[in-house]
Amino acid sequence: MTEILSFQNVSFSYTPDQPDKRKAVQNVSFSVNEGEWIAIVGHNGSGKSTMVKLVSGLLFPQEGEVRVMRNVLTEENLWETRSNIGMVFQNPDNQFVGATVQDDVAFALENSGVPYEEMVERVHTSLSQVKMDKFLNHEPHHLSGGQKQRVAIAGAIAMKPKLLILDEATSMLDPQGRDEVLKTVRELRKEIGLTVLSITHDVEEALFADRILFMNDGKKYAEGTPSEIFALGDKLIEFGLELPFAMRMTKLFQLKGVQLAGQHMTEEELVNDLWTSNFNK
Amino acid sequence: MMEKMIFGRYIPGDSFVHKLDPRSKLVFVFAFIIVVFLANNVMTYAFLIVFTLLVIFMSRIRLYFLLNGLKPIIFLLVFTFLIHIFFTREGDILFELGFFKIYEEGLRQGVFISIRFLVLVLMTSILTLTTSPISITDGIEVLLNPLKKLKLPVHELALMMSIALRFIPTLMDETDKIMKAQMARGSDLSAGPMKERIKAVVPLLVPLFVSAFKRAEDLATAMEVRGYRGGEGRTRYRQLEWHWQDTISLILLVAMTILLVLYRS
Amino acid sequence: MQKIQNHSNTRSQTFDMVLSAMLIALVFVATVFLNIKLPITANGGLVHLGTAMLFITSILFGPKKGAIAGAIGMGLFDLISGWTLWAPFTLVARGLQGYVVGKIAWSKGRNGSSITFNLFATILSVPVMLVGYYICEGILFHNWIVPVASIPGNIVQNVVGIVVAIPVCAVLKKVSFFK
Amino acid sequence: MDIKLQQVSYAYSMGTPFEKYALFDVDLTIPHGTYQAIIGHTGSGKSTILQHFNGLLKPSKGQVHIGDRLIVAGKKAKELKPIRQKVGIVFQFPEHQLFEETVLKDIMFGPMNFGVSAEVAQKRARDLIKLVGLSEETLDKSPFDLSGGQMRRVAIAGVLAMEPEVIVLDEPTAGLDPRGQREIMDMFYSLHKERQLTTILVTHSMEDAARYADNIAIMHEGKCVLSGTPREIFADSKTLEQYRLEPPHIVRFQAKIERLMNQPLSRICLTEEELADEVARALREGRDKQ
Ligand SMILES: Nc1ncnc2c1ncn2[C@@H]1O[C@H](COP(=O)(O)OP(=O)(O)OP(=O)(O)O)[C@@H](O)[C@H]1O
Ligand SMILES: Nc1ncnc2c1ncn2[C@@H]1O[C@H](COP(=O)(O)OP(=O)(O)OP(=O)(O)O)[C@@H](O)[C@H]1O
Ligand SMILES: [Mg+2]
Ligand SMILES: [Mg+2]
Where are its TM segments located (chain C) (predicted)? Predict the structure, then answer.
């Protein structure tokens, strides 16, 4: 397993001169390996976006270290590091630089001096990977939120990054837009084996992840597979999140005396259990 | 409201003029503005008119759009004409009514200056009617490139322009939304006494500035994460292509200049 | 909220550039989209708030950004509306105006927080702009009377601009982003 | 105060080459004291319709009754202010409308525009800040120093402070974490129940529409295509699909269970509790029969 990203006892405070104030990120450690999908969940203000800024070198930790591709992130290797990471942010409007879809996708390529012919080819390939190739010359204000986010993803993967970070990339979208974006990311993972770090407070979205980091008030409260994390049950609710639909239903069924064999995170499992425990006798 | 403003006056098309490279169009119009001042007699002004009509014809712009664009300046045109007529006191008297006299030179001046003004406005209008703001920006950037040596941040200015163009519709939407939200809270820019209306500007502009500032922060972050660190070492995705048509149009302009020089008095 | 510390130099350069772009867009939007109806009849009584936006920009962010936003924002307006021919004049006249306002409002480290100086700056910039346009139009019309026609309209615009900009700046200066 | 739209059509940029109709012949009646949800695909005209409820937009054709006021297409409507006080709108991302130096002043801004005295407005602000779940100290802070979720609550308090008889909500919880969403939706629901506040909710969340609304209207391409109780609306997933909507998660799940049990439950369930009850009862009955 190749490590792509790791935090080691990282702390960061926006107000280092006021030590009594809670730090935005406090003593967080974790690592992400190649090919994984990691989700970071946590309430508003729990420090998720700060962690993203630490990964991209927009901020540097006051304690601990951030390693990208096994190198400690410093001012010197900042730009090289950034070319290995693609990022998509929350507000679809505020990250669209170009005048049209294709200009926007080309932006990062222009920055790193990719020659013209190669740029054209890469812009077209990455746009077709997110199924936006029919929109080459569209202007941003004529696109839906979901489409803008897909363009942002295309812009990120055009650089062939090792790691794609989504900072609440779906939270301002309508349900259709959200589905579009998530579907795109899932397909990309299959197609080009991307490592994904997605930050969200949507638990249904986190269910797709291989591993979940659960943040609370700047600290890592827990880390584990979705089933491990959601087994925490009421703790999630206490810290501002909720349980996935299937788990909520499981609990309610058990409360009302419906026989079930165990806890379930997905609808399929729950329905199967309902079948085997109640009908299939 | 919005759509109208975003496209501005640019009308997409595929005429000869539309297809020209923005660089040649800019050089053309800029040179034209200077060349126009060469005209000084009936013949040369006639050349100017014919030439302008030719360009209008080649741009295939519907006359409606051109004339529509003239609306705001009609007043100025008439005003200029009248001022020249009334205030020039040279040459023969053509018309007299009491102390009110029109001199030949006044009429001449009035007509000439009005024609000059009109062809200038038409020609610059054709530029903006056939070229999108973003290609104008591209054209300007490339043309100003030599000034980089004088430490003029040409690349930054061009990128700034293109980001501004990109965010105009967004901020317009935002303005509309904030305006409506404040109207729903009882503060109205378009109704009530003067003092109230001016007071209603504060609840509109403060959030607008805050929002623009936050957008700038977000966009700067996004750009930097995507590897932006100034113009150094960047390649261009948007390529400009110089065709034979561009050369021809500049030759036409030179020919026209020669004519003007030959026939001016 | 505290400002994020600027760790790298590029960060503040990029941000400055993007902020200037936003200010250009703001001036443009105020010019085409924001109107106040006045009881007087010049121009149908509609006065745009572009000049006010230019003043605010210069007072909040200083001479450089003020000049850029004023010049390009309003030049763009000329380019896109029927006034294409005026664009180069606007570039000069408004650029100078923005610069003058910013320079005075930001003199001696005031950074636009003195209302008196802001007022002084805006008032002083009016003749600069008027003369700028006057000279340009004089050349264009080959006449020194015609350009006089646009002076009353320009004065009304500037007065409204000042009346709006001064109180708005007083409020904005209290917002933590713009201190 | 009833709100009634009759044959309302609306065109943006009327009379220009860019004229674009966003509403066509919409009929919709919202009786006093109801909780009305409006759902529909993106761009279906939801935001456009809600701006007719307090005269921010005037119909291009047709007429709008707001209480005893009548706004008719083509006629000038004077003095809309009283309507704006009676119908409060919480727009999407309402935190973008904050502008005052302090939270207190911002909450007082609305009521004072409608002629409420400073003392009364201040008292309202003190009551409301607690209602929206913030502490009284918040009142003295600058709204720009708050977190996104707190700003949202202040903005909502600013609309409630006008003491409207009708409250219109355009996606009031977008972007908040699950707890924030739940708290705000529950707060509006209890206001609706306690004060008989007519509530109009525009939302993409079928779950919220199902859980809270008495009546749901579906917008599709500028037309109001369907209106009914949540049970009626969500009973027919074929029709919903036609309008590019999905039934709430719970309804889809019920369909799965019904297929499994090979028999329909006695009614469409709109909340998770209801479904759990129904399934438990169906299973009990099934056992009793055996
Ligand atoms: N620029 C800043 N200056 C000062 N404090 C900040 C700044 N940005 C964030 N904070 C604080 O740091 C903490 C963590 O914020 P962060 O934005 O990382 O949270 P988040 O988990 O991303 O929240 P959300 O879900 O709302 O996006 C919060 O308490 C926040 O108020
Ligand atoms: N200011 C405007 N000018 C022109 N067209 C507009 C304007 N605002 C909205 N429209 C158009 O009117 C239609 C209805 O828009 P509206 O905003 O009412 O939809 P909506 O249902 O609220 O969508 P969403 O779910 O995305 O908020 C859309 O086609 C939209 O493009
Ligand atoms: Mg965040
Ligand atoms: Mg809407």
Answer: 17-36, 43-61, 67-93, 114-135, 155-172
Residue with the nearest Cα to atom 31 of ligand 2?
D43
Nearest CA to B32 out of B254, B262, B181 is that of B254
**Cβ atoms of residues C167 and B202 within 8 Å:** yes
Closest C-alpha to A59, from C11, D157, D278, B55: C11
What's the gap between Cα C54 and its chain centre? 2
Q: Is the sign of the CA dihedral B76, B81, B82, B88 positive or negative?
A: positive
Buried/exposed D262-276: b ≥16 CB within 10 Å, e otherwise: eeebeebbbebebbb
Quote the ipTM score: 0.93
Interface of B with D in 161-180 (CB under 8 A): 174, 177-178, 180
Question: pTM, whole model, 2 decimals?
Answer: 0.92
Tell me the HSE value of B91 on the side-chain side, using a 13 A CA sphere: 14
- Ligand positioned closest to the Cα atom of D51: 2
pLDDT at C7 over 60: no
Please give the structure tokens belonging to residue A58: 């927009």
Bridge partners (DSSP) of residue A197 are A38, A165
Q: What is the pLDDT of residues A85-104, one digit of tens each?
A: 999 999 999 999 998 999 99
Q: Do residues D226 and D40 touch, judged by C-beta distance below 8 A?
A: no
**The CATH classification of domain C2-178, taken from the options 3.40.1710.10, 2.60.40.10, 1.10.1760.20, 1.10.3210.10:** 1.10.1760.20
Dihedral Cα B156, B157, B160, B166, nearest 10 deg: -120
Q: Which long-range contacts link A177-183 to residues 24+ away (Cβ below 8 Å)?
A: A177/A144, A177/A145, A177/A146, A177/A147, A177/A149, A177/D42, A178/A146, A178/A202, A178/A205, A180/A146, A180/A147, A180/A149, A180/A150, A181/A146, A181/A149, A181/A150, A181/A153, A182/A208
D162: Cβ contacts below 8 Å, ≥ 6 apart: B185, B186, D85, D88, D110, D111, D114
User: For ligand 2, which residues put their CB under 6 angstroms from it?
Assistant: A 174; B 2; D 12, 20, 22, 40, 42-48
List all residues whose CB is within 6 A of at least one atom of ligand 1.
Answer: A 14, 24, 42, 44-50, 168; C 1-2, 4; D 147-148
Per-residue pLDDT tens digits for D219-234: 999 999 999 999 999 9
DSSP secondary structure string for all residues of A29-50:
EEEEETT-EEEEEE-TTSSHHH
What pLDDT shows up at residue C45?
A: 63
Q: Are D89 and D50 in contact (CB under 8 A)?
A: yes
Domain ranges of chain C: 2-178
Q: Which residues of chain A have pLDDT under 50?
A: none
Which pLDDT does position C44 carry in this prediction?
56
Contacts of A53 in chain B (CB under 8 A): 221
Q: At C118, list the tokens.
A: 């802001």
Beta bridge partners of D228: D216
Confidence class for position B5, pLDDT limits 50, 70, 90: very low
3-state secondary structure of B265: coil
Q: Compute and round to an integer the Cα radius of gyration of chain C.
A: 17
Beta bridge partners of D167: D88, D199
**Going by C-beta distance under 8 Å and a sequence separation of 6 or more, which residues neighbour residue B169?**
A139, A141, B2, B5, B6
* Residue B14 to chain D, least CA–CA distance (Å): 21
- How far, in Å, CA of B258 to CA of A60, rounded? 65
A253 is written with which tokens? Answer: 């069924």
CB atoms under 10 Å from CB of D185, counted, come to: 21
Query: pLDDT tens digits, residue range A8-40?
Result: 999 999 888 888 888 899 999 999 999 999 999
Given a cut of 60, is residue B1 above it in pLDDT? no
